[in-house]
Amino acid sequence: MRFIFMGTPDFAVTSLRALAQAGREIVGVFTQPDRQAGRGKRLQPSAVKTAALELGLPVYQPEKIKTAESSDLLRSLHPDCLIVVAYGQILSPEILALPPRGCINVHASLLPAYRGAAPIHWAVMHGQAMSGVTTMLMDEGLDTGDILLQRACPIGPQTTSGELHDRLAEEGAQLLVETLAQWEQGSLRSIAQQGESSYAPRLGREDERLDWRQCAGDVHNRIRGLNPWPGAYTTWRNDLVKVWRSQTVAPISFKEVPGAAQPGQIIRLSEEGLLVQTGQGQIILRELQPTGKRRMSAQEFWRGRRIQPGELLGESGAEEDRHG
Length: 324
Known about the structure:
The protein has ten helices and 15 strands. By secondary structure, the protein is an alpha/beta fold. It folds into two domains: 2-185, Rossmann fold (3-Layer(aba) Sandwich); 205-323, Roll (Methionyl-tRNA Fmet Formyltransferase, Chain A, domain 2), CATH 3.10.25. The strands form three sheets. A seven-stranded mixed sheet has the order 5-2-1-6-7-8-9. Strands 10, 11, 12, 13, 14 and 15 form a six-stranded antiparallel sheet that branches. It has a two-stranded antiparallel ribbon with strand order 3-4. Mean pLDDT is 93; it is low at 316-324.
């Protein structure tokens, strides 16, 4: 079978390499155009483009895939099947109908849960204990196609979205190879998605802001769900601070601070980190990053800035106008 691979970020690279290692005939790799990145705003290739060139595969980078020119290009390569892994553009009905063996997608959730662009982030931010990967036949809906195979993956209480991303990338690549082998042999039958669906939209700036009125578990899940990208943030003395690592703790007495502790109030400074009150329960912040600085332990952060118990995090919204 002749395959066209469509993908863009690191998550898709693992599947591309697995296909190449399995000896699949990849007649073209479609990925997003080079984008400006870094302080110098230099054009940078996607992770998939870099990997494809290393593998000696032809690379195509149409600005828009839903054009007559793109459809003609795809058709000229005579693919039997399209493989789509985090490509970043929606395929037209014409393209979906082009390959005789269909279009197969690798999605980083156990569908129908977490359809959409950011399934890994939202699964962690919602405190899910289980995630996984799904291979499916694509249709015109958003991640609504019939399921081919699925594989579950547990999420630990300290697991970050970055750690889950790497595990699911590996699981997804293996599942794709298994799917194609069974699909080609005719031993695999697709099944319609069943059960309650949920949506995982792209992350916006507001999703990154920590709301100290939430319970400690929700704050902790948001911090690890946004690690390593784009990072959860709060404010301190009107300056933006990203929070990278945290842990929940058993409830403590409010007697440790004068008066009733408010959400966002720093209760104690210790070798463990900053103990902060939330809307329900407390949380320890272990790794932070002030604006323009490197990541650092909470001890480094508070020792170098003369932080005092009783100070509030996130008490001003002025920074959102400056950094939003």
